[in-house]
Design a protein that fits this description.
mainly alpha
């Protein structure tokens, strides 16, 4: 299961350095239970929980209920020592373990646990100075990469949970001084690609999925500020329109940078048939993009004004004013539904 995690999940969202984590596993299980580092033990159980949650086993055992039970069991083991993880000497491993917990918990219908944990995680990340390149300047290249990767994963989770819960994010963008993932050197353990790079099955096209998620998380922060923030409620109609146009412009630029092979339904033909984990990740990527578009355009079932307008159309009392991006929104929604219909199964995780 550790190998499955490293190959299928960690290669796309680099929570751990593969070699470092494998050494950690070896050291942990070479000791008796009483001698083991509780944080290392928690980290291993978090990895096992993520693997059970996100990856269908190669033997074809599709018992979703059993896998959910195993996920809960591993997560409970990790949480049994959460006081050690949060209150002992702060190391990168502590933060990685908490990030893994949030990755598991954020799939719940009630995000309260994930929201509380991500807040604590960010505070520990700030304590280590992960948001500032100067703090890790004395470290070697590999350690600096790990610090960068972990911070950007924290950032993604913070912005995503903020938008979903309609609550302010913890991390302030202006307080970040780090290289984006694509600016980092390639990992010596790989084939020359930076962590987070995904390739088509024929190897002819590549994209940095990790970078795309970081950039999309930044846009999610803009969507929150545009719609749900206290500042948004105080803006004039003209200011709201300008803010929405700014977010849509950033989203259009982001979408234009996604290679066509990885856009919407095209992912089905681009990825290997048995690569359900990667297809699931792209389902998440495009669903977040689509959610941002619908929220900013205010053309969705949770917007009272839009719903009233639709009802008025049915009654024939007035004409519905469509958003400027309506055609693009409809096209992307239909394209995404093709991807979702072809890719979905009970064994694929679509929450992250």
């Amino acid at each position: 299961m550790i190998e499955m995690f490293l190959n299928k999940i960690n290669s796309v969202l680099p929570l751990f350095h593969a070699g470092t984590f494998l050494r950690l596993v070896g050291e942990c299980y070479s000791r008796t239970p009483r001698q083991r580092d509780p944080v290392a033990w928690a980290a291993i159980n978090v990895v096992l929980a993520l693997t059970c949650q996100q990856i269908s086993p190669p033997d074809g055992d599709g018992d979703v209920g059993a896998r959910a039970d195993h996920t809960t069991e591993y997560l409970n083991r990790a949480q049994s020592v959460i006081s050690d993880v949060m209150l002992s000497e702060t190391r990168l491993l502590n933060i990685q373990t908490l990030v893994g917990m949030v990755m598991v918990l954020q799939s719940a219908h009630d995000p309260t646990q994930a929201l509380i944990l991500i807040a604590a995680t960010i505070r520990l990340a700030h304590k280590m100075g992960l948001q500032n390149r100067a703090t890790s300047a004395h470290l070697g290249p590999e350690e600096r990469r790990q610090h960068n990767h972990v911070f950007w994963l924290v950032y993604i989770l913070d912005k995503d949970l903020s938008l979903r819960a309609q609550q302010p994010s913890i991390q302030v963008d202006d307080d970040i001084d780090l290289d984006l993932p694509h600016s980092l050197p390639a990992d010596d353990d790989g084939d020359g690609d930076a962590p987070g790079v995904v390739a088509t099955s024929d190897g002819n096209a590549r994209m940095n999925y990790f970078l795309a998620r970081v950039q999309l998380a930044n846009i999610e922060g803009g969507v929150y500020d545009c719609i749900f923030s206290t500042r948004a409620a105080k803006r004039s109609p003209e200011e709201r329109l300008a803010a929405a146009d700014s977010v849509l412009g950033a989203l259009e630029k982001w979408q234009a940078e996604i290679p066509s092979e990885f856009g919407g339904a095209a992912v089905i033909a681009s990825m290997a048939n048995d690569d359900s984990a990667s297809i699931g990740f792209f389902c998440i990527l495009h669903s977040i993009s689509l959610r941002c578009m619908t929220l900013v355009s205010r053309a969705h079932a949770w917007n009272e004004e839009w719903v009233r307008g639709v009802h008025d159309i049915v009654r024939g009392t007035r004409k519905l004013q469509l958003p400027v991006i309506w055609s693009a929104l409809v096209y992307q929604a239909r394209d995404y539904m093709i991807l979702f219909e072809q890719a979905w199964s009970a064994e694929i995780w679509f929450r992250w």
